[in-house]
Amino acid sequence: MNVTSLIGHQPPVTRCLILTSVLLMVLCSLDVISPFTLYLNWQLIIYELQLWRLVTCFLFFGNFSLQFCWNTYVLVFYCSSLEEIAFHRKSADFLWMLVCGAGMLLVLTYFFGNTYFVSGAMIDLMTYIWGRHADEHL
């Protein structure tokens, strides 16, 4: 099984998340872009309108490493499982769930934290929702 067939069989939202996070990792690993242009910085978002930071802080898992591979594996497993089973044929609802979760995490980081990358918290959120959904069906 090659990588193309693995990604091609993923649901649409999961596929976009995987491809975007891998693309950001490759671009940062090759020094095409700097991770300093991706992190969550409220001053730059508010005063310089660098709005992409509201999204990239959720999609960047770091340069190529064991941690990146693990986070990508967890993203593929839990995200695709949620999108295929809990949100069967409702990718827009799944995307809305992710947007609402991301919004709540952004509010928390604005008031309580110096968190620069929220991708780990987003994976924790998906893992929690997946666990709650699995618990309901036991």
TrEMBL record:
Coiled coil: none annotated. GO terms for biological process: response to stress. It comes from the Eukaryota. The keyword Transmembrane helix applies. It is found in: Endoplasmic reticulum membrane. The chain crosses the membrane at residues 17-39, 51-74, 94-113. SUPFAM superfamilies: Rhomboid-like. GO terms for cellular component: endoplasmic reticulum membrane. The keyword Endoplasmic reticulum applies. Pfam families: DER1. Belongs to the derlin family. May be involved in the degradation of misfolded endoplasmic reticulum (ER) luminal proteins. This is Derlin. It comes from Symbiodinium microadriaticum.
